[in-house]
Amino acid sequence: NIVVVGSINMDFVCYIRRFPQPGETVQSYRTETKSGGKGANQAVAAALSGGKVSLVGAVGNDSYSRDIVFGLRNYRVDTDRIMQKKSDIGTAFIAVEESGQNNIVISEGANGCLTVEDLKDLPELFGPSSVLLVQNEIPWACTRAALQLAKDHGVRTYFNPAPALGIEEDVFPLVDVMILNESEAESITSIRLSEELSDVKQAASRIIALGVREVIITLGEKGSFYMNDQEESIFTPAFSVHAVDTTAAGDTFIGSLIAARQQGTPIREALRQASAASALAVSRAGAQESIPTAEEVAEFLSR
Ligand code: ADP
């Protein structure tokens, strides 16, 4: 099974003509509430790709929280280890201007109430072929503890260091596979990524040198670059699609890739499937509701 320890949010998305000035009120022409958070999105992506997924995280004691947990169950994500905190659900307030630019205010809510103590039973979820997936939207001590527990139990670890803030490099040796986008790779390696693939290679090498066994840098509409500690590398081009909404592109890529690897798919083919899944996700509006199923990905690849 795939054990995800990560964030669960309610996203409030307001579509507006232009951002308000300080002190100004503007009218939104459409507002949507959506279940989100990188932990939840990646769990849903892995489940839709055929993975058996448990999500460990925290919600609040409000009605949004109940709706979100119900929604996750509908995606066949095991929610038994989602804790209820005396707090509000984590939220993201997203204002999207007509130009497509966005402004986001995050409130960690229940995600910030997760403690290392809450994770002490995590190993009960680990079986012989389990993997762990973490991001960086819960307290850093919890992310670190989850990686350490997995390592102690011989469980393969995947780390998406997003957002790339407050990452301590001494956890890198606990990471089997790091998956990150261009801006996260820039902030972790301090290498400015130009259009040249040589910069991306250099950034990947630097991450490998810090103790990670495999790294994948996603490059938006350009594709992705994989490297392992044997210096093998694979560039996978993105599929050309009409991009409608790139929200959850990375989350879909990650969930799909891990589910494919779990099912024994070789890395080159797993990267191709992840690329197809995320291309489908960007060709549709929304976050979780834009994530395709394994059947949709297979159909897309057979076209
Ligand atoms: P994030 O969403 O984390 O910023 P990226 O933008 O790098 O991540 O996207 C992740 C993956 O999604 C890419 O490696 C690519 O395969 C796919 N993807 C992203 N944008 C597009 C696009 N416009 N067209 C096709 N595929 C895309």
Automatic annotation (TrEMBL):
Its main location: cytoplasm. One of its GO terms (molecular function) is ribokinase activity. It is an enzyme of class 2 (transferase). Its cofactor is Mg(2+). InterPro entries: PfkB_dom, Ribo/fructo_kinase, Ribokinase, Ribokinase-like. Pfam families: PfkB (PF00294). Substrate binds at N9, M10, D11, G37, K38, G39, A40, N41, E137, D251. Homodimer. Keywords: ATP-binding, Carbohydrate metabolism, Cytoplasm, Kinase, Magnesium, Metal-binding, Nucleotide-binding, Potassium, Transferase. K(+) binds at D245, T247, A281, R284, G286, S290. Activated by a monovalent cation that binds near, but not in, the active site. The most likely occupant of the site in vivo is potassium. Ion binding induces a conformational change that may alter substrate affinity. ATP binds at N181, T218, L219, G220, E221, K222, G223, G250, D251. The keyword Transferase applies. The gene is rbsK_5. Its EC number is 2.7.1.15. It is found in: Cytoplasm. This is Ribokinase. The active site is at D251. Requires a divalent cation, most likely magnesium in vivo, as an electrophilic catalyst to aid phosphoryl group transfer. It is the chelate of the metal and the nucleotide that is the actual substrate. Belongs to the carbohydrate kinase PfkB family. Ribokinase subfamily. PANTHER family: RIBOKINASE, SUGAR KINASE.
